[in-house]
From TrEMBL:
<dbReference type="InterPro" id="IPR050482">
    <property type="entry name" value="Sensor_HK_TwoCompSys"/>
</dbReference>
<keyword id="KW-1133">Transmembrane helix</keyword>
<dbReference type="InterPro" id="IPR025828">
    <property type="entry name" value="Put_sensor_dom"/>
</dbReference>
<feature type="transmembrane region" description="Helical">
    <location>
        <begin position="141"/>
        <end position="162"/>
    </location>
</feature>
<dbReference type="GO" id="GO:0016020">
    <property type="term" value="C:membrane"/>
</dbReference>
<feature type="domain" description="Histidine kinase/HSP90-like ATPase">
    <location>
        <begin position="340"/>
        <end position="430"/>
    </location>
</feature>
<dbReference type="Pfam" id="PF13796">
    <property type="entry name" value="Sensor"/>
</dbReference>
<dbReference type="InterPro" id="IPR011712">
    <property type="entry name" value="Sig_transdc_His_kin_sub3_dim/P"/>
</dbReference>
<keyword id="KW-0418">Kinase</keyword>
<protein>
    <recommendedName>
        <fullName>histidine kinase</fullName>
        <ecNumber>2.7.13.3</ecNumber>
    </recommendedName>
</protein>
<feature type="transmembrane region" description="Helical">
    <location>
        <begin position="66"/>
        <end position="89"/>
    </location>
</feature>
<keyword id="KW-0472">Membrane</keyword>
<dbReference type="InterPro" id="IPR003594">
    <property type="entry name" value="HATPase_dom"/>
</dbReference>
<dbReference type="GO" id="GO:0046983">
    <property type="term" value="F:protein dimerization activity"/>
</dbReference>
<keyword id="KW-0812">Transmembrane</keyword>
<keyword id="KW-0067">ATP-binding</keyword>
<feature type="transmembrane region" description="Helical">
    <location>
        <begin position="182"/>
        <end position="206"/>
    </location>
</feature>
């Protein structure tokens, strides 16, 4: 049984199969595409930074005053840099938000252009400036250090071949003049390759974390916290009201309706078939039985009894057995979950399998339940025609709202031609 793939590089680094997955190559692609961007930004910073450092060094070492021309150049350059930075950082931030998808499958929404004034007066814009400066100053230094370590490792691995030349070869702290002397260092270099591979992933993960922190910063954290708290209170109140309605229907209305149906059935036995009252009585009896079925469906819709009896994994397997297409269930949930999380996850699977049957034209589907730290991950995929669009109906939109009310999020991938994949992440901290 396999577990769900990590949605971002930080989570993938903690998995034992990281080195044989696609994540190291995604990290390498992220680093490789960063290099030209960071290099171009560093050149722009050096135009002002290098003369400034030279002037400060001259004053500190020789006590010579800074010339008027250099002072004017530094002043004008600084003003131009401060004036241009909010505008230039908008493009750099947009590219970085898009590029973050190389190492993080969690979407980071692009921010629309809010006007020239907003580029100089909003905290979001200056966070983008801070990230651009960080990308052009700190990142190149880190990359040079990693490049140096990679070069040293390559030299270790290649040392037996280099030692065959006429000149002695310096390896780390010693000199070797024969291939035999260099073999232990080559073995050390080979053993360090996985470490270096992990190091590249860690560097990419650190850069992506800073990017998400600065470029995805909420506009009003205090307001967002209050919205989150109020939403949690509403969810708790909804769950309490749902349980009350379920109890009242199950213990009050349903037994009375059952008794009414029995009484009508007994009355039908006492009334002759040719009696004028036989026909209306039969209709009333049938309507009472139909109302019982409807009431059971209502109670089932409030909270499926299978969740209580079988747990989430069993209830999902029951949904799979009732589906009109073959459904494979992979469940790796071996600990109790909060009731609200179980109910939301069940509705997600139920709605998605219903969409598969009604709209996708699929021949098979897969459902996966997994724990990723404090998250319950629910994934539903099918081999249908794809092109699912939340704007064309209320099903997926309502499902996303229900997931958001539980503090989770819904991700949808459905290109034309398929396949369709729905991923839901629900917090399930005890």
């Amino acid at each position: 049984m396999t577990t769900a793939e990590a949605p971002h590089l930080v989570g993938a680094l903690r998995r034992p199969g990281y080195l044989i997955s696609a994540w190291p190559w995604r990290a390498l692609a992220y680093l490789a595409t960063t290099a030209p961007i960071a290099g171009a930004l560093s050149v722009g910073l050096l135009v002002v930074g290098a003369p400034l450092l030279a002037a400060v060094n001259a004053v500190r070492q020789h006590g010579r005053p800074v010339s008027l021309a250099l002072t004017l150049f530094l002043a004008v350059g600084t003003l131009v840099l401060v004036a241009v930075a909010p505008i230039a950082s908008a493009g750099a931030a947009a590219v970085e938000r898009w590029r973050l998808g190389l190492v993080d499958d969690r979407p980071l929404a692009q921010r629309p252009w809010a006007g020239l004034r907003a580029r100089y007066t909003t905290a979001d814009a200056w966070r983008e400036v801070a990230y651009t400066v960080w990308l052009g100053s700190v990142v190149p230094l880190a990359y040079w250090l990693v490049a140096l370590l990679a070069g040293l490792d390559v030299a270790l691995v290649a040392s037996p071949w280099l030692a065959g030349d006429a000149d002695d070869v310096v390896v780390l702290w010693t000199t070797v003049d024969t291939p035999g002397q260099a073999v232990p260092y080559a073995i050390l270099g080979v053993l360090l390759v996985p470490v270096l591979w992990y190091g590249l992933g860690a560097l990419a993960a650190a850069q992506a974390t800073v990017a998400r922190w600065l470029l995805g910063w909420p506009t009003d954290t205090a307001a967002l916290r209050e919205v989150t708290r109020s939403r949690a209170r509403l969810v708790d109140a909804y769950e309490a009201e749902r349980r009350r309605i379920e109890r009242d229907v199950h213990d009050g209305a349903q037994p009375r309706l059952t008794s009414l149906s029995l009484q009508l059935g007994l009355a039908r036995l006492d009334v002759p078939d040719d009696s004028p009252a036989a026909r209306p009585l039969a209709v009333a009896h049938d309507q009472a039985k139909g109302l019982m079925v409807m009431l059971r469906q209502i109670v089932h819709g409030i909270r499926p009894q299978s969740l209580t009896d079988l747990g989430l994994a069993g209830a999902v397997r029951e949904l799979a057995d009732e589906a009109t297409v073959p459904v494979t269930v992979h469940a790796d949930v071996d600990v109790p979950l909060p009731e609200a999380v179980e109910t939301t996850a069940w509705y997600v699977v139920s709605e998605c399998l219903g969409n598969v049957a009604r709209h996708s034209g699929a021949t098979r589907a897969d459902v996966r339940l997994d724990r990723d730290g404090d998250l319950l991950v629910v994934e539903i995929s099918d081999d249908g025609r794809g092109d699912a669009d939340p704007t064309r109906g209320t099903g997926l939109t309502g499902l996303a709202d229900r997931v958001a009310a539980a503090g989770g999020r819904l991700l949808l991938a459905s290109p034309p031609g398929g396949p369709t994949r729905v991923r839901v992440e629900l917090p399930c901290r005890p």
